[in-house]
Amino acid sequence: MSSVKTARALIQHSRTCTAIRHSIALAKVQRAVSVRTYSSATPPRFISSQSTVASAATSTRSASSHSDGQESRATEIKDAKLIFNQAWQNIQDHYGRSNIHLPREFIFLMGAPGSGKGTHTSSILRARGITNPPISVSQLLQTPECKELINQGQMISDRYVIELLLHAMLDCDPSVGVLVDGFPRTDIQVEALKLLHDQMTSLRHEFFNTDRRDQFPRPVFRICVLYVDEEISVQRQLARGRMIREHNMEVKKTGQGVLWEERVTDSNETLIRERYAIFKAHYGSLLKLSKMFPFHLINAVGSIKEVMQTILKEFEYQSSLELDHDTYDAITHIPVANQIGIHARQDLISRLEHYQEYEPSLMQQAIQFIDEKVIPQVQRHSISGHTNIRTDDQQLADSHFVDIVMDVLSERGYHVSFDRRIDHVPVRVDLNTGNIQLETHHTYMLNIDFPKHYIRPLEQKFN
Prior knowledge:
GO terms for molecular function: ATP binding; nucleobase-containing compound kinase activity. By secondary structure, this protein is of the alpha/beta class. The protein has helices spanning about 1-30, 65-75, 80-95, 115-130, 135-140, 145-150, 160-170, 185-205, 230-255, 270-280, 285-290, 305-320, 325-330, 335-340, 345-360, 360-380, 400-410; strands at about 40, 45-50, 60, 105-110, 135, 180, 220-225, 295-300, 385-390, 415-430, 435-450. The chain folds into 2 domains: about 1-340, Rossmann fold; about 350-460, Translation Initiation Factor IF3. The strands form 3 sheets. It has a 6-stranded parallel beta sheet, sandwiched between helices. Strands 9-11-10 form a 3-stranded antiparallel beta sheet. The longest helix is centred in the N-terminal third of the chain and has 29 residues, at about 1-30.
C-alpha cells in the first residue's frame, strides 16, 4: 500500500509540476510581504528590545485543508530528504548544476499574526543592503494553477512549494541577499532548509578551486521570528482594520487617494483568534529549526525603532556563531563528521569483494587470524562487550593486512580500532663504555567493541 501511495503522490506532483514555470513569471510582480499563519504549543521565550536575550523558536505551518485535501495529505511523500532531492534534481536539470547561482545571504522572516512583519521588512532590507524584492511564499502560491488545485481540494505539496521557492531564489540578483517571508512552515520544509544549506556548502567546496568560485559563495542564513502575545495580536489587527476602513471611507467620500486592501481577518475577532491558535499549534517545527540555525524569538512589542534595533542585535548574535570567511574556507575541505559514514556500508562491501577477487590468499590469512586470535578473546569477553587484543604477530606489521582484518570484523558488526606501540628494551650493557644496547619490540593492539549481554542477578528473578 505504501508504494501505491507513493506512486499516487508522484503522479500528483507530475500533474502540477508544469505550473511552476508559469508561477515564476507571475511571482516577479507578486512578491510582497503578507500575513502568515504559524504555531506554538507553549508560551515562547523571546528577546525583548527592553530586556535580555533568551533562547526560543516558533514555527509556521499552513492550516487550511479540505476533507479531500486531507486525503491527499495522507498520500503525500513525507521523507524530507527524498522530497528535497527530487526538487533539487529538477532545479539542476532545468538550470544545470554549474549554472546555479544563489544569493549569498538569505533572511527568513516569520512571526505571529500582527507582529509587524510587513512594517519591519523595508527596514531589514535597507539595513542588510538587500535590493532584491522580498519573496513572499503565499504570493508565490497565488497563481491560477495553485488556486485551481486548492479549489479541487488537492494538496499543495511541500515538494511543489520547495521547488517553486528555489526557482524564485534563482530569479534574484545573486550579488545581494534576499528576504524570504513565510518559509519554512512545516517540519519537512525545516529539514529542506538545512538540506539547501548543505547543497550550497557542497557546491562551494566543489567549485572552490575553479574560476567559478565566486559564483558559489558560502551560504549565510539569518532567521528572524517576531513574537507578540495573543491579546496584543488581536488588538493590533482590529486597530489595523478600523484604520483601513476609515481610510477607505475617506477615499470614497472625497474621491481622492487609493483604497487599501481590507482583510476579513482584520475585523472578525473570532477569525483573528483562530489564526493565532494556528500560530501556537505548531511550535515544534521552528524549535527544530533553532537547533539547526540557532536564533531567538524577538519581542515585537515596542516602538518600530526599538524592535528594529533588537532585530539587528539578533543578526549580530547569529553572525557571532559563524567562522570568519577565511577560516571557514581554510577548513571546509575537511569532511563533516556526520558525513564520513554516509556511504560506509557500500564502500565496505566493495573493498571486501575486491579482497576476495584479487587477493584471495591474503583474505584467507586475515580470516584465519580472526579465527585464531580474535574470536577466542571476543567469546571470553562476550558479557562485557569489549576486548583488547595485544600481540606481537608480525602479520599486523602490514597495514594492508590490518585493513582487511578490520573490514571483515566491521562487516560482522564489530567496532574495531587499531594501534601499534614501539618499545625499546635494554638487553645488554657495555661495562667499559657504559653503552646500552636496545632491542625494538613491536606490540599491536586491536580494540574491539560489540553488543554486550546483560545478565539479571539471581535475586531479581524472584522479585
